[in-house]
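User: Show me a protein chain along with its predicted structure.
Assistant: Here is one chain, sequence first, then structure tokens.
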Amino acid sequence: MTIRDGLALDHLYVSIPEKDFNTLALIFASQPGINREKVQAGDNGWEGLYAYTRAGGYFEFLRGTHRQGSLGIAISSYVSHAMDARKLREELPELLWKTGTRTLEDGKPWFDFLSLGDYLSHETTLFNAWIMHYHQNHWVPSRRRQPRAIDGLVELHVDAGIGQRTEIELKGAWLPGTNLGESCDEMVQVLPDRDGGDVRVRITFKDDLKGFHFRSLTFLPTREATWKSCRHGSWEIDCLDGQVRLNYRCPNMGVDVDSCKD
């Protein structure tokens, strides 16, 4: 097996407007394994909603005051032969890799990163795809061991400006998994998950957009979940066929909270 064969999705993030972030925080407030956290990495800080899955991956809604209009795909290793994911450079030496170390607030190393873009630039980089090689003392954060409301991610769907297509193709050339094919207005990347399943990232391109705009997230709930359908502003959660689907809706719909049973 190659190093690339041993890589899987670590997490996804998408930046959302601050108003929608605060509304979504209310929706997720009572769900186990979904936390609102402020992170300080070196001199760079941000706030996000972290939704952890049973297998240990997670999805992050990033508060729009940081990396506004951005999408990120983080990959890490999950099998012993590929534990040092940084060796992917040796398998794909023709790519122009950039490397570095992300530190914690106290200066201790958090993870090494490997990317084809300027990973640390939150002002100019709208799409990020990078490898995370965790340092051992931060390999399994304690919060990942708490009960989960999400069994697994199914699909993230975002809209994007047509100008982001080239950036995605260049920076995501090394990603594990498969590309389901592209059309003039859409691409779908299928990423391996840590539990042997797949997670789809669907990107629909539009001429009148800049950056990335969240559209929907589909995932499987666990028995610990106590989901409610909450409409506030432009958010809606649907529970259909055992799946929870979070949709971005427009225009604003006011406030209406209803129970949603599995």
